[in-house]
Each structure stands twice: as C-alpha cells, then as structure tokens.
Amino acid sequence: MLNKDNKKQIKSISLQSVALCVIVLIGIYSASYVLGQVMSGGSYRIQSDSVNFGGGFSTSTTFLIQDTGGEVATGDSSSANFKMRAGYQNMRENILSLSTVSDVIMSPSIGGVTGGTSNGSSSFTVITDSPAGYTVSIQASNSPAMRSDLDTIADYTSAGADPDFNFSIPSSASAFAFTVEGVDSDQKFKDDGSACNTGAGNTADKCWVGLSTSPQIIVSRTSANQPSGTLTTLKFQAQSGSAHVQVEGTYVATTTITALSL
Question: Of the candidates 53, 73, 93, which is a domain's last residue?
C-alpha cells in the first residue's frame, strides 16, 4: 500500500501493522493453594512446609525416585466443592491465561519527505492462580523490527540504561519504539513524573524503549490475580524527522508476546 498526497505529490510511508504472536508458558512447582508463604526472605519464598523423615532423591540406571516418609492421607481427593492434592512433594500445575493480542494498525501514515509521527496500541489480559505471579516478555523477529521491502526504521535507542521519559530523536533520523501501561507494568516503565525506572507512577505515553530480538520483560507480578486478571496496554510509536527522508512503502514489525507463570 503506497500513499501519495495528490496536491503536493509527496510520497509517504504507511506503517500498516505490528503483528503480535502470543505464547503462554506455564511453570510447575510445589506449592500450597493458600496465597501466602510460611517463610520468605529477600531472595526466596517457601510456599509450604512439612515435618517428615528420610526421603529425598534416589537414582539408578533404571529409575529415579523422589520420596519421603511420615505422612498420611496423601494424594488426590475431591468433592463437589473442592479438589486437593495433599502431601509433601505433590506437584501442582498453575493456571495461566493470556488473552488474544490483536495486531496493531499504526496511524496516520508518515510523509516520506516531510516526516511525522504514527501511533498504535493493543491490550491484553493475563490471569493466573500462581502465588508467585507471572511475567510477560516481548521479542522482535527482526532487527530493526519495523521494515518494508526496501528500507527499515531504526529501533529506538534510549539515552541511558533506562527507557526515555519522552520520545526524542534528531530531525535527521527515524525510529520505532514502544511503552507499556498498566498496574503490572515492569518497574522500568514506572516513573516519578520526570524519569523512568523510579517511583510508582505510570504516566501515559511516557518511558519509551526500542524493540530487540532478545526477550524484554515488560510486565511482572509477584502474586495471583484470578479471577479478574490484569489488563496491560502496549503502545507503539514511529517517528521520522523533518530533515530525514524515509523510503516510501508499507512497513511491518513482527513481535512475540510470551507469558510465563512463576
């Protein structure tokens, strides 16, 4: 899709979409159904404990066993109102749900000679019963992420290690960036009103960073959030400076969104 201004005959670039692929990974661990910890510290949390004797790991060339002694009434039991998996080392599977993330249609098209700014957004909801919470990461398929058949738009480069509070590029450049909004946004997207990765605010349209072919954590939570879940909004912005000439064409970025229970 090529766009032209019929009066001025200025060719433009169409930022058609950011294609988002969704992956859900469920972590499995030994834990209590109670949303709390019997012991915790700065670097650990023990979900449940038990008094036992003996046991542990045993192996041979033909088997591997993980056992313990001194317990009664272990195993699975259920009724119309509950389901219980009792016993030390009785593993449980977490529930993790990630809603479908729709592709993003950027708007408006950007003048290839005059420059401009294009924006788009998409939202998703994550639900988990994991007492340790979950994370969501984003990963670009290409570097730079936003590209056409003939040209690319550079991934945004922040001034420092943290996201930039304001989207800012030279007039002679173009760049593509994203930010995250929602109560579970990772700390680097939180702000104090003037800087990112500090404070607890989540100011709209602030804290911009470029995509990468390596996964970047964008959402993190340390507790369960079922049944309602948590909504997060991804926002994208592309900009071409007034002194920059961007080759006309339809530009597309493809990214993967991955949710992981902890």
Answer: 93
